[in-house]
Amino acid sequence: MEPMLAAADNDPGSLAAAAASFPLLVYDHGEQPDNSQTVLSVADGSSRTYQLPELQNFRCLETPQGLVLMVDNASLHCSLWNPQTGEKTPLPAMDEPPPASCRCLVSDTISSPPDWIPDGEAPPDSLVVICDFTRPELLLCRIRGGATAKWVRQPYDYMGLCEIPGKAPTARTIVEIAAVQGIFYFLKSRGVVGALVCFADDPEPHLELVTFEAPKPMIATDAPQVVTLSYLLESSGELFLVCLFFLGCGLEQIEEVGAYVMDFGQRQWCRVTDIGDRAFILGPGQFAASCPAAEHGLKEGCVYYAYDFLRNSNEFHIFDLKEGTREVARPTQDIPSLSRRPFWLVPIHPGV
Fold it and tell me: 278, 255 in Cβ contact below 8 A?
């Protein structure tokens, strides 16, 4: 079978011809020497070099819903880019650049109204939300807000302080977050889940907080210390948590990978080993998305994980949740130096 990316046209500035190859792992080489990107199809291992104008002179924030928020470095004009079609939806300009470290999500409530909206009641508008990792603040913007739309800053103080001996306390920020049926769920603490809701009658976007207790999963081990990396994601209208467990204080060796679905009736995380015909995609900045497996040539029931802590390899890991096996894959070609960690472009979420 011919590699999927090899079938793309000769336009080095468009990903639309490679739409069938999504999800893609993107290695961005920055401005030197030619503003190029190496794009890997994890389905078949094929790769191709692009020169994407969307990644030149723009700050781009990928989302689990497949869209990419583009912010012009000079004018701060914004748009939502669909990498599979090339289409762009204009958004209001920002008043300052996006945070240096952050996470971006899109909540679609117009095409896919949440189950909790009564019949005949208008759903809240779809939102773009940026979680600032550097300070406790959210950036919100309505996608279909029209001429009155603008970016709104929403500070918060409900995450508490991070206290490290010998250092001044710093405000904790939301890190693990997922959009599910118009609600933004996040891990407030080890045993508490937060939910942020935007109501349709709000004159400008504002997220209201509710919380509920749900103990975070652990693994049975005699190790004196376990480090857990947690990822929240939406899949088929459900809220999932994926945990990577590391023994000791280092992050070099993953001991176990667990996937859990939220049982809202019992308010608890229930472990699952069979997620059906889908794959979970994890990356830097707590990026987490769900993707139909067979349709996109992925291994069903697996977690694809791309995050090089030491920045000395371009590998990605594939964990089979049902079989408990794992494998490591990497591009077959040499990858030039990178301007940022590899990131995912995933298929467009249905309804977005």
Answer: no
